[in-house]
Design brief:
The chain contains four helices and eight strands. The protein is of the alpha+beta class. It has a single domain, classed as Aminopeptidase, CATH 3.40.630. A hairpin with a 4-residue loop joins strand 1 and strand 2. It is globular and about 40 Å long. The relative contact order is 0.16.
Length: 190
């Protein structure tokens, strides 16, 4: 059984990443609704929005069960107790690797928040025994997402052709990797 991923990750600047829980159902629904047009070009899951409240509650309950069994951790990103986005550590790339995902609420765009979130997630991943690398994947057309791994010193692995999953995608997934032994968050990345 895999080690359970962190429940909370706190940044030095007041940024808090904590797992979504069932009690967050309505607040998450509002944040996603407020972010849907901004996310629609890049996030496959946004096509199912808006979710009925019962369906969202069931999804959050499933996320809690999966996390407790050593699966993915899906977090809310909070700044001053406001939902600033969502993110996650996902076990879909390799037994010794984690993939980072993130989205930012439009109110918090262009503040370096996605980079700060990815830095905290990378820090947390490398505190776990057995995790040797972290990856970030995004479509080539998503230039804002490309800036995040680049800013943090991730190595670009190349591109993989895939099927576009969202309207803004080209079908060229860019993959970036950070190895545990290389991880040194750049000054100013906080």
């Amino acid at each position: 059984m895999a080690i359970v991923l962190p429940e909370r990750i706190e940044g030095p600047d007041g940024l808090l990443l904590r797992r979504w829980v069932v009690e967050d159902t309505e607040a998450l629904g509002r944040a996603v609704a407020e972010s849907s047009e901004h996310l629609r070009p890049w996030m496959e899951w946004i096509a199912a929005e808006p979710l009925a409240i019962e369906r969202r509650r069931a999804m959050l309950a499933e996320w809690e069960r999966e996390w407790a069994q050593g699966g993915d951790a899906v977090y809310g990103a909070f700044v001053d107790q406001q939902i600033a986005g969502g993110c996650g550590l996902h076990r879909r790339i390799a037994p010794d690797g984690l993939e980072i995902g993130y989205w930012i609420h439009p109110t918090f765009l262009r503040r370096g928040l996605a980079t700060r979130v990815a830095r905290l997630l990378t820090d947390a991943a490398f505190t776990l025994p057995g995790i040797t690398h972290v990856e970030i994947h995004h479509d080539k057309a998503n230039l804002a997402s490309a800036g995040v791994p680049g800013n943090l010193g991730f190595e670009w692995l190349g591109k993989v052709r895939d099927q576009p999953a969202a309207p803004g995608e080209l079908g060229l997934e860019w993959r970036w990797r950070m190895e545990r032994g290389r991880w040194r968050p750049p000054a100013g990345a906080a």
